[in-house]
From TrEMBL:
Gene3D superfamilies associated with the record: Dihydrodipicolinate Reductase, domain 2, NAD(P)-binding Rossmann-like Domain
One of the Pfam families matching this protein, by short name: GFO_IDH_MocA
GO CC terms: cytoplasm
Keywords (A to Z) from UniProt: Oxidoreductase
Start and end residues of each Gfo/Idh/MocA-like oxidoreductase N-terminal domain: 5-123
InterPro entries in alphabetical order: Gfo/Idh/MocA-like_OxRdtase_N, GFO_IDH_MocA-like_dom, NAD(P)-bd_dom_sf
Record's protein name: Inositol 2-dehydrogenase
GO MF entries: nucleotide binding; oxidoreductase activity
Family per record: Belongs to the Gfo/Idh/MocA family.
Gene Ontology biological process terms from the UniProt entry: NADPH regeneration
Protein's organism: Jeotgalibacillus proteolyticus
Taxonomic placement: Bacteria, Bacillati, Bacillota, Bacilli, Bacillales
Ranges for domain GFO/IDH/MocA-like oxidoreductase: 131-257
Keyword Protein transport: no
Length: 341
């Protein structure tokens, strides 16, 4: 079987996770990396015996040995990096979001649509076994017609100070675009419908200085979908117990919850604190297998010359909804979404 050779752009926390996952796959090689920090490049190159290392993405994609790229660069660069990769005849896996502004994403979608190369977007919850199990239940009609979807995504509060320092240097696009795109994608995926109205609010009580950065530490949104499903989401950075991702679907025949508590494992501890269930502490821990499986699907699509289920349009729609939530929060009003193209 021919080895699929991948170039990885970006070696932050998630980039390093992808590096480890790529190197652990059969008949797949981490052939090149690109990252501004040469010290990090050398560390990763030595750890995984990566043949090539670059300090610019533009140089890396000129490497003619590559079959594909995995893009984990800052979100604002994603549209340009996707387009450059496709121009160099490379298959593309890109982390969410597809970009930070709608017009640039639309142009990128047009380029992707015209290309015969595989484009895969990193909505890893679609590859999580629990989410897949519930999706199958919904599609079979096991819980009847959906009326309400509720989805939480809350990071550990221990990382909040680090985020504040990051936000002072580089805009995240707001909590809805930075965090809620996963929840929005799940809502669209489960409901098979688009969001038409949003009302969003938020606050910053642990770190009020986020208000001056047009950021919040916890945000909420109520959404009305085109098929009259109501969706609620919470995005936050203040979970004291760990990494909390929870989704609930209420239907006419029943309801399901995914991770009502963010259990680390099946262990229950009995001690002077009472009865305690250890919890997941980070997204790499909670979705470890999903991150592996999404890359396996990317490689499968390359080998079989097929398209993945998740599309660039999914990225566009989730971004449009996230931006509408941000506008609703900033303007303190209900926002209706008008999709074009």
């Amino acid at each position: 079987m021919k080895t699929v050779k991948i170039g990885l752009a970006g070696l932050g926390r998630l980039g390093l996770i992808h590096a480890d996952n790529i190197q652990g796959m059969k008949h797949v090689e981490l052939t090149a990396i690109s990252n501004l920090d040469e010290t990090v490049n050398k560390q990763v190159q030595n750890k995984y015996q990566v043949p090539y290392a670059y300090t610019t993405y533009e140089e890396m994609i000129k490497n003619q040995e590559l079959d594909a790229v995995c893009i984990v660069t800052p979100s604002g660069f994603h549209p340009r990096h996707i387009q450059l990769a496709l121009e160099h005849n490379l298959h593309v896996f890109c982390e969410k979001p597809l970009g930070l502004e709608v017009e640039g994403i639309k142009r990128t979608c047009e380029v992707i649509e015209k290309s015969d190369k595989v484009f895969h977007l990193g909505f890893m919850r679609r590859y999580d076994k629990d989410y897949l199990y519930v999706k199958e239940m919904i599609d079979r009609g096991d819980i009847g017609e959906i009326s309400i979807i509720r989805s939480y995504g809350i990071d550990p509060i221990g990382g909040l100070e680090s985020f504040v320092n990051f936000a002072k240097k580089s805009p995240s696009g707001g909590i809805y675009l930075d965090m809620s795109v996963h929840d929005i994608d799940v809502i669209r995926w489960f409901s098979n419908s688009e969001v038409k109205k949003v009302w969003a609010t938020g606050s910053s009580k642990a770190f009020p200085e986020l208000n001056d950065l047009n950021e919040v530490e916890i945000g909420t949104a109520v959404m009305q979908l085109e098929n009259n499903i109501t969706a609620f989401l919470v995005a936050g950075r203040t979970a004291s117990h760990g990494y909390h991702v929870e989704t609930e679907v209420i239907g006419t025949k029943g309801m399901v919850r995914i991770a009502a508590t963010p259990d680390k494992n099946k262990v229950t501890v009995f001690n002077d604190q009472g009865v305690v269930r250890p919890t997941s502490q980070s997204f790499p821990e909670r979705f470890r297998e999903a991150y592996v499986d999404e890359l396996k699907d990317f490689v499968r699509c390359i080998r079989e010359q097929t398209k993945p289920e998740v599309t660039a349009l999914d990225g566009l729609r989730s971004t449009e909804v996230a931006i509408a939530c941000q506008h609703s929060f900033e303007q303190e009003k209900l926002v209706e979404i008008n999709y074009e193209g």
